[in-house]
Write a structure and sequence with these properties.
The chain is an alpha/beta fold and 499 residues long. It is built from 22 helices and 16 strands. The strands form 4 sheets. Strands 4-5-15-10-11-14 form a 6-stranded mixed beta sheet, sandwiched between helices. It has a 5-stranded parallel beta sheet with strand order 9-6-7-8-16, with helices on both faces. Helix 1 crosses helix 6, helix 17 crosses helix 18 and helix 17 crosses helix 19. The longest helix is centred in the middle third of the chain and has 20 residues.
Length: 499
């Protein structure tokens, strides 16, 4: 299988090349030349597979220049009991017979990014060998919080790679910040950006598209790549857990094979929910993909109106991983829903870059609304939802998952849809413990306490254990001190690489 660019002006490449490059040279995103299909009979056969077996099946369908043994080795190394603290890797917790929660935070950094970033380094290392790469692959990452730590942890000390993470200095939680700043590894670099996530993401994209910089980097035997979800190798592993969730519901007789279910996904960059779209297109019985946004509701407005407008202030919320106004992966969806019209996609992306907005045509708009429904929740609603879910179900959720719960309430109220539904839970509640504690504890127990004190208080109150990856963070030595202005990201990369 070959990979083509959403903007149609790059040569097709094999999966190893697409993974190594990350971004297509024309600025587009790589997509498979055709989507793999899982017919009904095959879906029945896959129903008995565990997570690792499912992963091998789905990845083999897309990474056709990787051997069966190579994929199996990648899977077994990534999804091991040493890395994930639950035997199901991504277990489904049932709130009731109607509503279920897919827990995607049992990996080493306690967030859903581990589901892909534990396996991407293995793909990347093999890709370098397959493409005859003799230089060092430099992974550039812009993060709104979770991707950064997951990439640092995944690529730590991986031979032939170096990773540089940029994060908004005041746009992540204290736990997220310390997870990154204390990261060990001989090949890791972390830089705080004096700006927001879109500044960081824009600066990183600019480095990728800077021909002069890339020429100098090549002279020094450096090749740039990405671990953000613009990289197909980051996106394709996310398809797996949609099938895994479905299998678990079938195995518990919650649904019968072939029954449709809904997924509610909190999302900012649109990668997580896009993986659900790909799962649906492959043949997974999905009824509706419900896109949950916070007050930075650019995606909700797009799904409702067909107009994407980033010309607004980025709001700082208690669900910071969704504090994003430029949802990169939407480009892949538009490519698929326009009948793979790279001309339309190119026009819209150019308009977004130049004017900060675009509006899709009515036919594409109709298709968007066929697959997706969307709403958003503000911070007060998020806190109320965390408390409500704890009080009613004795189940603790983080702020991003709470946004999804609240949006699902809106969906039920407005549609009366009785389809059984899975909420994607994207982070451990302990990762955003300041907000979670504020929601469920008395004010006196929270006031004046640091995030690290609140970890213990929250664990004592709920009886839930603090995840291994979050314990004693405040006792670790800060190893990374570099900062840059929003316009200085390229200069920072040059200084780190010495070019």
């Amino acid at each position: 299988m070959h990979y083509i660019s959403t903007r149609g002006q790059a040569q097709p490449v094999k999966s190893a090349q697409a993974i190594k490059k990350g971004l297509a040279p024309d600025g587009g995103l790589y997509v498979p030349e055709s989507l793999a299909k899982v017919p009904g009979g095959r879906l029945q056969q896959l129903a008995g597979c565990d997570y690792r077996q499912l992963a091998q099946e789905i990845l083999a369908a897309y990474l056709t220049d990787y051997s069966e043994d190579e994929i199996k080795t990648c899977v077994m190394n990534a999804y091991s009991s040493e890395k994930f603290d639950h035997p199901s890797i991504a277990p489904v917790h049932s709130i009731n017979n109607q509503l279920h929660v897919l827990e995607l935070w049992h990996g080493p950094t306690c967030a859903f990014k581990d589901m892909a970033l534990q396996i991407l380094p293995h793909f990347m290392s093999l890709a370098a060998k397959k493409t005859g790469e003799e230089g060092e692959i430099v992974i550039l990452v812009a993060t709104s919080g979770d991707t950064g730590k997951a990439a640092l942890e995944g690529f730590k000390d991986v031979e032939g790679t170096r990773v540089i993470v940029f994060f908004p200095e005041d746009g992540v939680s204290q736990v997220q910040k310390l997870q990154m700043l204390t990261q060990e590894g001989r090949n890791v670099n972390v830089v705080a950006v004096q700006g927001n996530f879109d500044d960081a993401q824009g600066g990183v994209k600019q480095v990728f598209s800077d021909n002069e910089f890339n020429r100098r980097a090549a002279e020094k035997n450096f090749r740039l790549s990405s671990a953000n979800s613009i990289n197909w190798g980051r996106l394709v592993p996310q398809i797996i857990y949609y099938f895994a969730a479905y299998n678990q519901l079938v195995s518990r007789d919650v649904i019968s094979l072939g029954d449709k279910i809904n997924f509610v996904v909190p999302t900012g960059n649109f990668g997580n929910i896009l993986a659900g779209f790909y799962a649906r297109e492959m043949g997974l019985p999905v009824n509706k993909l419900i896109c949950a946004s916070n007050s930075n509701n650019v995606l909700t407005e797009f799904i409702r109106t067909g107009e994407y407008d980033r010309n607004r202030n980025l709001l700082k919320t208690i669900s910071p991983s969704m504090d994003i106004l430029i949802s990169s992966n939407l480009e892949r969806l538009l490519f698929e829903l326009t009948g793979r019209s790279d001309e339309k996609v190119r026009g819209w992306m150019n308009q977004l870059n130049e004017d900060g907005w675009y509006k899709i045509d009515p036919q594409t708009m109709e298709r968007v609304q066929h697959y997706f429904w969307s709403d958003y929740a503000d911070d007060n609603q998020t806190l109320e939802t965390i408390k409500d879910v704890w009080d009613k179900h004795h189940y603790l959720i983080d702020t991003h998952t709470a946004v999804a719960f609240k949006v699902y309430e809106s969906y039920l109220r407005q549609t009366r849809d009785s389809t059984k539904t899975v909420i994607a839970s994207t982070a451990s509640p302990f990762k955003f413990n300041a907000s979670v504690a504020r929601a469920v504890l008395d004010r006196d127990n929270v006031q004046g306490k640091s995030e690290f004190e609140l970890l213990g208080i929250l664990a004592g109150y709920t009886g839930w254990p603090i995840p291994e990856g979050l314990r004693n963070l405040d006792k670790k030595k800060v190893l990374h001190h570099k900062k840059t202005s929003a316009g200085g990201i390229g200069r920072s990369v040059s200084e780190i690489l010495g070019i």
